[in-house]
From TrEMBL:
Keywords, alphabetical: 4Fe-4S, Electron transport, Iron, Iron-sulfur, Membrane, Metal-binding, Transmembrane, Transmembrane helix, Transport
Superkingdom assignment: Bacteria
Residues annotated as domain 4Fe-4S ferredoxin-type: 61-99, 145-182, 202-249
Annotated protein name in UniProt: Polyferredoxin
Pfam families reported for this sequence: Fer4_18, Fer4_5
Membrane-traversing stretches: 21-38, 58-82, 103-127, 147-164, 275-297, 317-335
InterPro entries: 4Fe4S_Fe-S-bd (IPR017896), Electron_Trans/Redox (IPR051684)
Source organism of this protein record: Symbiobacterium terraclitae
């Protein structure tokens, strides 16, 4: 069995492995270059090098929905392509089998454990600063909380790589099941194509099913676990070339008589149009949402300002009307660097407004409360509208809050 599989030239696998390694490298580097990282201690999120706070959560939500619609569009057309060409679990499903052959079972488990612990460290770095933790380890410190998390995550990854493997993809992975639900007969799938005038030229050697690490027999309609890896095509090419016939197994688009192989480019483009109605909406939403997300990210507020009536406890969020003479001005630095803020009160007669302080220095994510006392120098009954404004000197951030003072 090994010698037979060893003869297969896995050409498609080379391209797939390059895609998988590129994605894995990106996932490892992301938290350390702040491409994407949650920072739980400060309750912030790094996205493409930009630091976002709770007030910016809508940007992250829109980007998440954008990715989901893109995955839906890809799954409608190609099936579980993300599983085979992107997901790190599928990469390790294959390489751990190679570790079994090269290092033996015990050696493979040891390598899986080392990789799993490193994976646990990377996962921890998605929620806290991994470089700080690494410096602690290098200095001889062993913090209990992070170490316990890394050990637990490392154990999970070791079990996933050394024992569970494809069972996670076939049974436990919700994303894999979602892709299977989205696909239908029109989605790209494997099919045996025969030469014109012949009933069946498949050698029925079973090499295509034997090489599939997901346990799929590509000659049957049951292909929900197919991850579009392409190994079966290379196996079929080996046998077909030896028999002097074209490769009989191909990825096809369409169902029934309209099914055409990917290599039939002219008919393929014609057949893809049958999928257009299903692809238009997710692709349109992907385009629109990505544009909206980019705009909101570029124009996100850099400072948050709220003016509230000052009771015994300062209100966390103020209403538009306050009749109290003492108010609380709450401001939060939403930029990714420290800034010097100036506070201004506009719209009240001169001498009525007295700020506890007119300048505030805040680091990223820091909040300050400044009391504002409104003391009319003369009695003018009515509603007096005014605006509290804040300006950041370094970032140029500006925000204003309109409210009123009522004189009875």
């Amino acid at each position: 069995m090994k010698s037979r599989l060893g003869k297969v030239k896995t050409v498609i696998r080379r391209y797939r492995r390059a895609s998988q390694m590129a994605v894995l490298s990106l996932l490892i580097l992301s938290p350390f270059v702040n491409l994407f990282r949650f920072d739980l201690p400060s309750m912030s999120l790094y996205l493409f090098g930009v630091r976002l706070w709770t007030k910016h959560v809508v940007v992250f939500f829109l980007l998440l929905v954008t990715v989901i619609y893109f995955i839906i569009a890809a799954s409608l057309l190609f099936g579980r392509v993300f599983c085979g060409w992107v997901c790190p679990q599928n990469l390790f499903n294959e390489v751990t089998r190679e570790w079994d052959r090269r290092f033996g079972r015990a050696g493979s488990i040891l390598v899986s454990l080392l990789v799993g612990l490193f994976g646990g460290f990377v996962v921890w770095s998605y929620f806290s600063d991994g470089t700080v933790l690494l410096r602690q380890y290098l200095s001889g410190q062993v913090p209990v909380g992070p170490t316990a998390f890394i050990a637990a995550a490392g154990l999970f990854f070791t079990l996933a790589m050394a024992w569970w493997r494809t069972a996670i993809c076939r049974v436990a992975c919700p994303y894999g099941h979602l892709q299977s639900i989205i696909t239908n007969a029109e989605t790209m799938h494997l099919q045996v194509f025969n030469m014109p005038g012949t009933r069946d030229i498949c050698a029925t050697c079973g090499l295509c099913a034997e090489i599939c690490h997901m346990g799929v027999d590509p000659r049957t309609p049951e292909q929900k676990n197919c991850v579009v890896c392409g190994d079966c095509l290379d196996a079929c090419a080996l046998v077909s070339q030896a028999r002097g016939v074209p490769r009989v197994l191909n990825f096809t688009i369409g169902a029934g008589e309209r099914a055409v192989a990917l290599r039939e480019r002219g008919r393929l483009l014609q057949n893809v149009r049958h999928l257009a109605p299903r692809l238009v909406l997710p692709l349109l939403l992907t385009t629109v949402l990505s544009g909206v997300s980019g705009y909101l990210l570029a124009n996100r507020p850099l400072v948050d300002l709220v003016v509230a009536k000052d009771h015994r406890h300062v209100l966390a969020a103020g209403g538009p009307v306050s009749s109290g003479g003492v108010m609380a001005v709450s401001l939060i630095n939403l930029a990714d660097r420290a800034d010097h803020f100036r506070l201004l009160v506009e719209g009240l007669p001169e001498g009525w407004a007295a700020l506890e302080r007119t300048t505030v220095d805040l680091g990223p994510g820091e909040r300050a409360l400044v009391r504002l006392r409104v003391n009319p120098t003369e009695r003018q009954v009515g509603i007096h509208r005014f605006t509290v404004r804040v300006v950041g000197e370094q970032s140029g951030a500006e925000a204003s809050f309109e409210t009123v003072h009522v004189v009875y």
